[in-house]
Amino acid sequence: MPRYDYRCRACGSTFEVSRPMINASDPAPCPDGHDDTVKLLSTVAVTGAAGARRPPPRAGGGGGGCCGGACCS
Fold first, then answer.
1. pLDDT per residue as tens digits for the range 24-58
2. Which terminus has fewer CB within 10 Å in the chain: N or C?
3. For residues 1 and 18, is the Cβ–Cβ distance under 8 A?
4. Where are the alpha helices (DSSP H) in the chain?
5. Is the dihedral of CA 13, 19, 20, 23 positive or negative?
6. Confidence (pTM)
7. Strand 14-18 to 37-39 pairing
C-alpha cells in the first residue's frame, strides 16, 4: 500500500499515511489533532540499469561521426 507524506500547517510536523491510491487525495488529519494539513510532493528513486552511469567514450575506439568513426573525405 502506498505511503503519502503530509505536513501540518498548524504545528509544522511531517507525518506519513498509508492508504490505497484511490484515497490519495483524501484529507489526512495531523496526529496531534489538527485538520489543516497539506500533502507533500513525493520523490521517485531511479535504480537499476536505467539509472546507471555510462562509461566515458574510449579515445580512438571508433563510434560517432558521419561515417561511424572512419575517416571521411
1. 889 999 999 999 999 998 776 666 665 556 666 66
2. C
3. yes
4. none
5. negative
6. 0.56
7. unpaired
